[in-house]
Specification:
The chain is of the alpha+beta class. It has one domain: Beta-Lactamase (2-Layer Sandwich). It has helices at about 5-15, 25-85, 95-105, 105-110, 125-135, 180-195, 230-240, and strands at about 115-120, 155-165, 200-205, 210-225, 240-245. A 5-stranded antiparallel sheet has the order 2-1-5-4-3, with helices on both faces. It is elongated.
């Protein structure tokens, strides 16, 4: 039996030997062959694209589900933190530290690098607040630089990053007033007004050694009386601080 290529050559040779009045068959066969080849190539390309798209969609769905699962888990951390402040008139630094230790962030929530609480401080209480933090006896702040709200300056209200876990390389952010930065203030106000978890992406985090890291930050407002008040006016009036997870 002749090989396929030999058969094609025989067919072409046979077509070339056709009388002139039948030469049109040569062009018809050639055109049909080219059309079949183009159609086969197009079909093959479509099949490859469909398979690639199907694989991509499968991977994308898996990634999206994983992200949603992580966000829900980290959201649980924030609601637990808010519950800590809801259940106490005054949460101390040691209590916040113990709560963070109990969460086992590194093991149970590997994507969370730190958690924090930011106090709402009216301008009239700025000096009193700074003195109170400096007077803390907790071993967690022993050896740390003297506490001060930063950057310096007079503002109507301060949102002061006070509790940080772990402190370590995050100590450079200790005392940072989020209201001093318009972008941070906008994100904080949005979380305060909604009463729900608010996410900010590509947030620049301060690190020890003048390093900075871009990350996604989740915030949840804390209100006097617990929970989230029903009206915007009440949420703004009873707002006392913000828990966050990065």
């Amino acid at each position: 039996m002749a090989a396929p290529d030999d058969a094609k050559l025989d067919l072409i040779a046979g077509l070339q030997q056709l009388p002139m009045r039948h030469r049109w068959l040569r062009w018809a066969v050639l055109a049909a062959s080219l059309a079949f080849s183009a159609a086969s190539t197009y079909y093959f390309r479509i099949q490859v694209q469909q398979e690639a798209r199907s694989r991509f969609e499968t991977v994308a769905i898996g990634v999206a589900n994983d992200v949603q699962s992580r966000i829900r888990a980290y959201g649980d951390v924030l609601y637990a933190l808010r519950g800590l402040f809801d259940s106490s008139n005054e949460v101390t630094r040691d209590e916040f530290h113990q709560f963070a230790q109990a969460l086992s962030l590194g093991e149970r929530y590997p994507g969370v690098t730190n958690i924090s609480f930011t106090f709402r401080v009216p301008h009239a209480r700025k000096l009193q607040f700074e003195r109170a933090v400096r007077a803390e006896k907790s071993l967690l702040v022993k050896g740390l630089p003297e506490f001060a709200i930063k950057p310096p300056g007079e503002r109507p209200e301060y949102m002061v990053l006070t509790f940080l876990e772990p402190m370590g390389k995050n100590v450079v952010a200790w005392g940072l007033d989020l209201n001093a930065d318009p972008l941070r203030r906008s994100a904080v106000d949005r979380a305060r007004d909604s009463g729900q978890i608010s996410a900010s992406s590509a947030v620049t985090l301060l690190r020890d050694g003048n390093a900075s890291v871009a990350s996604t930050l989740l915030r949840l407002a804390v209100y006097r009386g617990g929970g989230a008040p029903g009206s915007l006016e009440e949420r703004q009036r009873l707002y006392s601080g913000m828990v966050a997870a990065v």
